[in-house]
Amino acid sequence: MSEHITTLTDGTFDEVIGSSAEPVLVDFWAEWCGPCKMIAPVLEEIAEEHAGKLRVTKLNVDDNPEVARRHSVMSIPTLIVFRDGKEAARIIGAKGKAQLLQELSAFI
Amino acid sequence: MSSTDDLDVREVIIIGSGPAGLTAAIYTARANLHPLVIEGEPSSTSDQPGGQLMLTTEVENFPGFPEGIMGPELMSRFREQAVRFGAEIVTRKVSRVDLSARPFGVWVGDPEVAEPTYRSRSVIVSTGAQSLMLGLEAEQRLIGHGLSTCATCDGFFFRDHDIAVVGGGDSALEEALFLTKFARSVTIIHRRDQLRASKIMQERAFANERISFRWNHVVVDILGDRSVEGVVVRNVLTDEQTTLPVTGLFVAIGHKPNTDLFKGQLEMEDSGYLITHEGTRTNVPGVFACGDVQDHTYRQAITAAGSGCMAAIDAERFLEAERQPATRADRGR
User: Is A36 in the active site?
Assistant: First the structure.
């Protein structure tokens, strides 16, 4: 996995989201989710290209059900962008790079 | 550059990368036609690289895999095999085609740009089909919040929930059976009093005690502001409406072909499926169609792969026949 992507857990989620100066994108994913795998390389590219502006992280919902439940994630992939600790945008479902960049344009 | 320099004209472009497109890629690559596969972009609606199998789990009926194989794994093997023989693959979505003149033009990205991104002597269309939605207003609000078209993606979130599946074909039963791994109960809502699904799937569904059926019912509304709280169904025989207290609804009511790109250029049925004749030929010489985009009858990975092979052979013969006169003229000089 790219060095630009941080792995979050139920234990580290609040601290990372709460303390980040940049907006944080959280990719809720799981091993068995085909569309999650399809967008993983796209997110790696975005993480690398926009390092410093948008912090890209991922959270495995199998291993960390608590955060997923707290944020009412009922479908994956779900991408949530947190700004100043609060949810600022939510993107549900896999999308191509151009469309993702467009939906993330307020943060990059 | 407005040059028609042969160098930047491809022999064959394949649009779509399910079993049909990738089989066409394997065959045309082995015929040294250096195919370019425009595989599409990620999405969760069965319109994505690898096609509908990317959203399934176990594939049990693809010959050669007696133990079964996971859908995404099977497609990654198709892809590897195509790449091994020299197919070039780009992860973009085609935004426009011009099949009115040869070489054909294919655009990715901005469709308004005058010059096509790629030009090709032949095109193989294998854009497949995607899941139909119910067409209810509530769908926009609730998709991803209890409403889903991908059981394998979202089933996990319904552990111990009571949920419903709408549809009566193989994919509906497959989703329902998969969902019983998580859900407390699965109600299958079907508009008729019998299923279209294959016998083996029906037997499995009838034998599963977590699955029950709501026959002769259609979904008329989905309740809930922030997540699904119930599904309103109507009995098509009595018109009586009832509300099922479910927190999840999975839609598997069929498919529509991905043919918007080709409207007005390729002959299609009213339902949008491309019309082929003499094998995989469309009404435009040099354009071939294979897989679910032209098949609403069989719709299997193996039939899609078979028709992909046919399209490759048809394209190869077409290109060969086109080349003949030129070769003779060259010799005459």
Answer: yes
